[in-house]
Amino acid sequence: MKQILQVLLAAAVAAGAGPLFARTKLAALPQREAVDIRMDHPLYTLIEEERVLTLSKGLNQVDFSWQAVSIDPDSIRLQPLDHPDGVRLLNVSYPPGEAALVWEIASDGNWAERVRISYLLGQIDRLAAYKALTDKAETKLDLTAYLIVRNFSGEQFDNARILIGAEAAFERTIAGGETRQLLLMQAGPLPITKVWVWDSAIQPWDPEKLEGQNIGIPVFYRLVNEQAAGLGRAPLWGGKMRLFQDDGSGSTIFLGEDILPLLPVGRKAELTIGDSRDIVVTQRKMKEEQINIRRNRKEQIVLYDTDEILTAKIENFKDTPAVLTLIEHIGGQWEMNSCSLPYTRKDAETLEFEIPLPPRKGDKPAAVELEMHYQRRNIRP
Amino acid sequence: MKRYTGLVLLSILTAAAVAKVDLVTLPASEAVQITIYESADLTLIRDSRPLTLREGTNQLQFSWADTLIDPTSLSLIPKASAAEVDITDLSYPPNASHLGLWTIQSRLAGSVPFEITYLTSGFRWRAFYAGILAEDGQTMRLEGYVRLTNQSGEDYDHAQVRLIVGQVHLLDEIVALARRAFPYGRPGEEIAAMLPQVLQERTRSAGRIYKAMDMAASVAHKEIRKEGLSEYFLYTIEGTESIPTGWSKQLPSFQAAAVPVVNLYKFEEEMYGSSVIHYLSFVNDADHQLGQTPIPGGQLKLYRTVGKQGNLAYEGGSAFKYIPVGQKVELNLGQAEDVLVEPKLMEMKTDNYRFDDEGNISGWDEICTFRIEAKNTRNLPVRLEIKRNFPTSYWTIKNLEQAEKVFEKVDKDTVKYTLLLPPQSAQSIEYVLTTYNGTRQQDWPSKTR
Fold first, then answer.
1. How many helices (H) and strands (E) does chain B have?
2. A–B interface: beta-carbon pairs under 8 A
3. What are A69-116's pLDDT values in tens digits?
4. Of B60, B58, B38, whose CA–CA distance to B47 is shortest?
5. Edge-to-edge strand ranges of the sheet holding A140-151
6. How far is B186 from B189, CA to CA, in rounded Å?
7. What stretch of H or E contains A255?
8. What is the mean pLDDT of residues B50-62?
9. Would an 8 Å CB–CB cutoff place A171 in contact with chain B?
10. ipTM surpasses cut 0.90
11. How far is A164 from chain B (nearest CA, A)?
12. Distance of CA A361 to the CA centre of its chain
C-alpha cells in the first residue's frame, strides 16, 4: 500500500522545547481511521481524514508532509474532535524546501485525540457519464448515470467514503492511478420528445446545388429535469451521454452521443443523436425588390424598403410522421404581408414554425409548402 | 479462434489480488452480434455469455489488449435474474492497461446469462453498385453489394452481422478513445489520437492463417432483412458470419432487373461551363422496381450491354448519395459528347434611359435576345434541362414560340427550360430578356415575371 501523505508525531515535546528547525522526526505514524472524499464541487476535491494523535499535556508538534502529491497548503486544516476545547492549534510552520508543515498543538491532558485533517487534493476528480436507452417508438428513455472517479493524485484511499451532495455516498477503496466507474442513479422511463430542426441560417437552402451530398437535419431528444418526468430532485451533472435504442428484437442500436449540459431542476436539455436525411427542405428566394426608394439631390438612394417572397418546400420521405421546427431569420424592421403557415416570433429577427409532416404515402414523399411574403422597412444602403 | 479480448471470473477476491490471477473460468460466448456503422468508424459489439456466480461479491475481469475497444463504452447487464444481481462498479485498475474489473453483487448462486456490450473501432462497411444498361439505354439492371472489413484486431467467429445506414452524432473518435493511456484520461488531459501501427502489422500475419477457412465459408447468398429505426436503416444479414481481423467480406444486398431510367442532360454555364453533363435518373420507388428501402451512398460502376452475346462495355463510374424511399436519383456520368447545347446572343439593345439632375445616365434597360440550340445525336430519347442565371432580380422575359411551354421560374434570378429530345433530333428555344438597371429598377413591373 502506497501512502505518500505522512503525519509524523513528534511526541510529547515539552513546553519550551527547542526551536522548530531542529525538528525530531519520530516515526510514530498514526493510521488513518476514516477518509471522506468529497466531490460535490465540479473542480476541487476535498479530502477529510481522521487520525488519532497521542498528545501529551503541554505543547506538541505534529509534522504533516506530502511528497509527490498536489495539495493546496492554504487549504490544510486541523480540527480536534474529542476535546475541541482542551486541544488548541497554536500555529503552523512551514519548513523551507519541503512539502510539509508542522502544527504546534497545546493539549490540556494526555490524550489520544481524534483529529480531522482536511485539504484540497489535486489530480483526483470525478466525471458524470450517462447511458440512455429509448424505446422503439422514441417516446421515453431509461437513464443510467455513472460517477467516474479518476484518482491520479498519487495517493491510495482505503475504504474511503466518496461523497457527492447530501444523498449519495459510496464506500470504496480507490488505488492510486485507478479509474472507477460507480453506478450513481437509474431513472425511467422518462418522457422525451423527438425534434427535427432546420435553421435557415445554418442549413444550405437548395439541396440541388449540392450535387451528390446529403443535407442532414439535426435530430434532438428533448428531456426535462422535472418530477413529472421521474427526475426533478437534483440537478443532473453535465457529462457525456450515449444513447441507445431498443430495436424491438431483443437487441439495441447505438443512436449517438452528446454532452448533457448541467441541468438544473425544471430545465430542459436537447441531446443531438444524429442527422436525418429523410426530411428534405428546399428553400428559395423568389423575389427581392427595393420599393419606396428615397433619394438625395444627387439621386443616390438613402432609404428604401424591400418586398420579398421566400418559399420552402418540406418533404418527408419517412414512413412515420414528424414535427419539423423550421427557423427563419428576417433582419431589422419588418412586416409580414402573408404567410401560409403559422409561426411564433421568438425574438425581433427569429420566426419559428412547428410544421407537422405526415408520413410518406406508399413510396411518395409527403410535401408541405411554406410561402412568406414580407416587407423589410427603412433600410439604409 | 484467436481472440484478444479475455474474460476471467474471479470469485470473492480482493482488489489487491487482481494483478496475477491464474484461476481462469473462460465462459464460452453463446452469441456475438456486430452492428457496424457506415458514417463513422464505429461498431457496437454484443457478446452473450453465461457466468456462474457465487452468492456475495463476484468480480469479472475483462481484458482487451491489442484491440480497438473504447473502454468507456464497456457495459455488462444480466439478461435474467436482474433483481438478484447488482453490477455496482467497473474499475480500471492501476498498472494494468486494457483491463476492466466489474464488481457483481449476487444474491443467488448459479449460472446467469450476461450481455457484454462495447464500442470498437476498426470495422468498416460500404455499399457499392453495379449498373448494367440495356442496349436501348432505357432500363438498367442494378445490383447492390456491401463489403465489410475487419481491422478491429479481434477475430469474430459465427457472429450475427448488422449494418447501419445513417449519420450518427459522435463527440470523440472511437479509435482515439481506444488508444488513450487511461480510459477516461487524467484530470485535465486531452485525447491524443494515435494510429495503431503495431496492430496493423500483426493483423497482416494473422490473415494468412484464416485464408483457407474464409474461402470455404463464402458460398451461398444470404438474405438481408431491412428495417428503419429512428433516423437509421438497419440491415441484418441472415445467419452468422466469421470475419477474422484483417479480412473483408462481400455480400449482395439487392438486385433490380430492369429499372426504367431517364437519360437526363443538364446545361448550366455557371455550374458546368460550356459542357453538357449526362445524368442517369430514376426514382427509388415501386415504379422503378425499387422503393423497398433507402439506398445507402456508395460508388457505382456503370456498364452497357453490347451485342447479342450480352458483352459489356464500361461506361464510367458515378456515386450514389443516400437516397430515401420516394426520392429521385440523379447519377452524374460526367461530360456528354453526344448532346450539344449552344446558347447564342442574337440581338442586344438598350433603351429607356434615365438621367439625373446633372445629366448623367442613372437608369436604362438592356434587351437581349437569346437562342439556345440543342442537339441530340444519340439513338435514344433524352431529357435536357437548361438553366439560365441572371445577374439581377429585376428582369422580365418574353419566351418565343415553344419556349413558353417548357419554361419554369426556379427562383428570383434563375429560370429553367426542360426539353424532351427524340433520338437524332434538334430543337431550339428563343427568349427575350429585359433587365432593369439603375433607377429603372423602380419601374420594374414586379407583378409580371
1. 4, 28
2. 187
3. 888 888 998 999 999 999 999 888 888 888 888 899 999 999 889 999
4. B60
5. A252-260, A239-246, A124-134, A140-151, A179-191, B85-92, B99-106, B56-63, B6-11
6. 5
7. strand A252-260
8. 88
9. no
10. no
11. 16
12. 42
